Request: fold
Amino acid sequence: MDFNLNLILGQMVLGLVNGAFYAILSLGLSIIFGLLGVINFAHGVFFMLGAFAAYMLSEVFGIGYWPALILVPLMIGALGVVVEVTLIRSLYKLDHLYGLLLTLGLAFAIEGLIRIVFGPQGLPYSIPDSLRGAINLGFMFLPYYRAWVVIAGIILCLSVWLVIERTPLGAKLRAATDNPQMVQAFGINVPVMLTLTYAAGVALAGIGGVMAAPIMSVDPAMGTNIVIVVFAVVVIGGMGSIFGSILTGLALGLLEGFTKAVFAEASSTVIFVVMVIVLIARPRGLFGKMA
Reply:
């Protein structure tokens, strides 16, 4: 094991970058499960589609990173509307397993289609010129873009949490899932609210894909590679716990970075070890509510 302090601090900062992606993706998953009761295994595919959409906007239309941050979530959200209306809506009254199986099949189908169209190799996506360069932290040079990812990711997650937990819109969303008949009686279109909730959840994955494109290789497997870890994050934080997903995603990113510095061989499994321990000690997760 290596206990070089500068190496540990550097890897933990880089781990926080991964943690920002974990938080964004697990937040979307928690919104969809917590408010709709759907285990959305296709979440990683929406993340991947966000990266490919940013790539296509750049290569075909010459649209850069900053406009893509606005356009891609709208595009992925619109796709989410189609998926919810045509596939997900019929599953709300069924066991959670049906939603998991359907979205798992959807994920494989979309990933296979992307492989056919673009091939299996990774595609490059440039860092925007305004975020090139790095800042000297003393123990490492942190690229501006990675610092942007952490700051923007945290602000995005906290903003979404505040909307859901502290605004009238969020109260209506929670009420629509807890007692749809009562909410419908007040003149609120519950099916539309549920559709928009699913769209918002996958749009978060789309934003994550755009932010990840300059860091990760834009390839068909990028969603599959991260979604398993994100599901572990959601389980550790507590299924449906929005705040738990944010905090756990960031914390596990730091833990992953620390492990990479002191015992690199365990860095790819440490999150799953934590998941096993949490499930044994507290099956509902760290922030999950009692059933």
